[in-house]
Design goal:
Distance between the termini of chain B: 36 Å
Shape of chain A: globular
Shape of chain B: globular
Strand content of chain B: over 45%
Order of helices and strands of chain B: EEEEEEEEEEE
Structural class of chain B: mainly beta
Low-confidence stretches of chain B: none
Distance between the termini of chain A: 37 Å
Mean pLDDT of chain A: 91
Oligomer: heterodimer
Largest sheet of chain A: 6 strands, mixed
Number of strands of chain B: 11
Largest interface: A-B, 21 and 24 residues
Number of helices of chain A: 0
Helix content of chain A: under 10%
Radius of gyration of chain B: 13 Å
Number of helices of chain B: 0
Order of helices and strands of chain A: EEEEEEEEEEE
Low-confidence stretches of chain A: none
Structural class of chain A: mainly beta
Number of strands of chain A: 11
């Protein structure tokens, strides 16, 4: 079983829609959690960290459920520029290695 | 502040050739890693380093060597290139605190023919 699993999508949504992605991880000792965004043929870029209490950055909200070992990302009022692949990333209890999900593809259409 | 710089951006090698992918960061980060990204496979860890002089293997280390003589540089060496090493390679670095995510370089697109 892969350590981090995501629904690959694609998610096709109209502009202005709300969309949610989920991600599950297998190592209960994992310590840090992130969402990254990757545009086509570009490097992954940090979108936001994920905290147990939940955190929000503008239109983006991230949640962590340690008991169920899943992470979520909610995007409100989707923009065309949100079209990208969203990567769920977990840092293992060792503290150095990132474990990546394969990514969820989002396409926002006019 | 350039962040993480990778060179070259593109490279074509013949089977059996060797080469070094360069990675440099100017953020004084202790942790550095190399990943490869293949379609349908996601990003996989090749080698990592937790500080100058300290390196270790990741998930897919075969065919690659690394060294870390300075905090800034973390080159990846392909010893004898194989077509299976055709991929996009990303170098990344981060600070040691658990709250910090990695910063990635822009990648090297390698084709082995």
């Amino acid at each position: 079983r892969k350590e981090v699993e995501q629904d690959p999508g694609p998610f096709n949504v109209p502009e202005g829609a709300t969309v949610a992605f989920n991600c599950t991880y297998s190592n209960s000792a994992s310590q840090s959690f992130f969402w990254y965004r990757q545009d086509c043929r570009k490097e992954p870029k940090l979108l936001m960290s994920v905290y147990s209490s939940g955190n929000e950055d503008g239109r983006f909200t991230a949640q962590l459920n340690r008991a169920s070992q899943y992470i979520s990302l909610l995007i409100r009022d989707s923009k065309l520029s949100d079209s990208a692949t969203y990567l769920c990333v977990v840092i293992s209890n060792s503290g150095y290695a990132l474990n990546f999900g394969k990514g969820t593809s989002l396409l926002v259409t006019p | 502040n350039a962040g993480v710089t990778q060179t070259p951006k593109f490279q074509v090698l013949k089977t059996g050739q060797s080469m070094t992918l360069q990675c440099a960061q100017d953020m004084n980060h202790e942790y550095m890693s190399w990943y490869r990204q293949d379609p349908g496979m996601g990003l996989r860890l090749i080698h990592y380093s937790v500080g100058a002089g300290i390196t270790d293997q990741g998930e897919v280390p075969n065919g690659y060597n690394v060294s870390r003589s300075t905090t800034e540089d973390f080159p990846l060496r392909l010893l004898s290139a194989a077509p299976s090493q055709t991929s996009v390679y990303f170098c990344a670095s981060r600070d040691t605190g658990m709250a910090y995510g990695y910063t990635f370089g822009s990648g090297t697109r390698l084709t082995v023919v």
